[in-house]
Design brief:
485 residues; alpha+beta; Dihydrolipoamide Transferase; seven-stranded mixed β-sheet; globular
């Protein structure tokens, strides 16, 4: 039998991914969990495992194509008795006939009449699916109705694998089991995500007038923008150029157009969110780091650090972690939904990394518990993985405070923008030899400027200043650590 594999949500709530390359071809025999493709999300490059064991019959998308979650990307021919449901990201899988969509006929095998069905994907079960094949949700503020008495709830995948779109508004449930109380359902409204509804509201657009071209008629941001520009005439008339994944320019043209996608799209969204949500404040401190650079040279020659890459970033990261113990407010986040300040008792240190794919900020988990050797090794591994574009999605989320080294580009200072959900970010400037006051005279010293941006809702000026002064003190005189720990 032929089975379609639809692009899953890879666990980050993202709505699309780009097919970078296929590792298999039509006619190839593949095994369960064999890597069949490499896809790029807005956060990382991910290897996609096969959810079936069988023969590749069709590749629906070509490399370079941006595919929305839920669209078919490959078809397999599998044996009738070897159905395999897509396995979850956490390693769970179901080899039963029910999970594979092969449910024997009969009352004992199927769900109770009117029972909503769920479809499996790589990260578990998706939205409830009505008999129409479309996801549905229970009307808000109304009690749910359980399964018929005496019938155990069974999750059975739908005959069709419709796209699952996170946070999409769906058609309310209208069918109900016999004998259940009548429930008034809310009227249908255009399907869209909360950000799209906000965009439409800001632009004064009635979503009921906008044709949806996303999965199951979902209205996307592009649909709203096309409508506003007078270009939206339905899915069939959408410009073909929108599907292009590379920069386009006519020969001799005076401009080049590059689609906004992937890391650039995510970075832009995050920076806009941060800049217009958190009130930024930035402070600067110029420090004589000659002693720290001398210490760095000694450590490089020591046996303990043999073969380990040590840079000014290593020492600055350790100084940040030490200073953070005395200023925990900078290791927190603002929870607007619960109106709470969440202070982290651990440090996931984000490191801004410039990669061929754009700017990413992977983080080192529990960096505060690491020795200097462990921290240096973690920084080297992080940099290598980021440059190769192999940073796992888990390492790109959950950061609590970040550091960026703009000094490698010869920049002295800047005003870094916070990562959303973090209270502070420290920028390191270039280390330069400059005339400096030293022991009552002027000497040529190695100097660095530190730039600290913080969320003024969470961090007062005094707290930010003390933290920055502590970081500077450690770099100016590493022996000061003895007074801080």
């Amino acid at each position: 039998m032929i089975k379609e594999f639809r692009l899953p949500d890879l666990g980050e709530g993202l709505t699309e991914s780009e097919i970078l390359s296929w590792k298999v071809g039509v006619g190839d025999t593949v095994s369960l969990n064999q890597v069949i493709a490499e896809v790029e999300t807005a956060k990382a490059v991910v290897e996609l495992p096969s959810p079936f064991a069988g023969v590749i019959r069709e590749l629906h998308e070509q490399p370079g194509t941006v595919v929305e979650v839920g669209k078919p990307i490959v078809s397999f021919e599998v044996a009738d008795d070897a159905g395999q449901a897509p396995s979850g990201a956490g390693g769970t899988s179901a080899r039963t006939e029910e999970a594979a969509g092969e449910v024997p006929a009969g009352p004992a095998a199927g769900p109770a009449a009117g029972t909503p069905q769920r479809e499996p994907n790589l990260v578990g079960y998706g939205a409830v699916v009505e008999s129409t094949g479309k996801p549905a949700r229970r009307p808000r503020n109304l009690p749910s109705t359980g399964p018929a008495e005496g019938v155990a709830p069974v999750l059975v995948p739908a005959p069709t694998n419709e796209a699952v779109v996170e946070q999409a508004e769906t058609v309310p449930l209208t069918s109900r089991p016999a004998g259940s109380p009548h429930v008034e359902t809310a009227p249908d409204r255009p399907r869209s995500t909360p950000p799209v509804r906000k965009l439409a509201k800001d632009l004064g657009v009635d979503l009921s007038d906008v044709p949806g071209t996303g999965p199951q008629g979902l209205i996307t941001r592009e649909d709203v923008q096309h409508f506003v520009d007078g270009l939206s005439t339905g899915a069939a008339a959408r410009p073909q150029a929108a599907a292009s994944t590379g920069a386009t320019a006519r020969p001799g043209a005076r401009e080049t157009r590059t689609p906004i996608k992937g890391v650039r799209k995510l970075t832009a969204s995050a920076m806009v969110q941060s800049a217009f949500t958190a009130p930024h404040a930035t402070e600067f401190l110029t420090v004589d780091v000659t002693s720290a650079m001398e210490l760095l040279a000694k450590l490089r020659d020591s046996r303990e650090f043999a073969g380990i890459k040590l840079t000014p970033l290593t020492l600055a990261a350790k100084a940040l972690l030490i200073a953070l113990r005395r200023s925990p407010a900078l290791n927190s986040r603002w929870d607007g939904e619960t109106q709470e300040i969440v202070t982290f008792n651990y440090v996931n240190l984000g490191i801004a990394a410039a990669t061929p794919r754009g700017l990413t900020v992977p983080n080192i988990k529990d960096a505060d518990a690491m020795s200097l050797v462990q921290l240096a090794e973690a920084l080297s591994a992080l940099a290598e993985t980021a440059r190769a574009g192999k940073t796992p999605p888990a390492d790109l989320s959950g950061g609590t405070i970040s550091i960026t080294n703009i000094g490698v580009f010869g920049i002295d200072a800047g005003t870094p923008i916070l990562n959303p959900g973090e209270a502070a970010i420290l920028a390191l400037g270039a280390v330069r030899k400059m005339p400096w006051e030293y022991q009552g005279g002027i000497a040529l010293r190695q100097v660095m400027t530190l730039s600290l941006s913080f969320d003024h809702r969470l961090v007062d000026g005094e707290q930010g200043s003390r933290f920055l002064a502590d970081v500077g003190a450690v770099l100016a005189d590493p022996g000061m650590v003895l007074t801080m720990v």
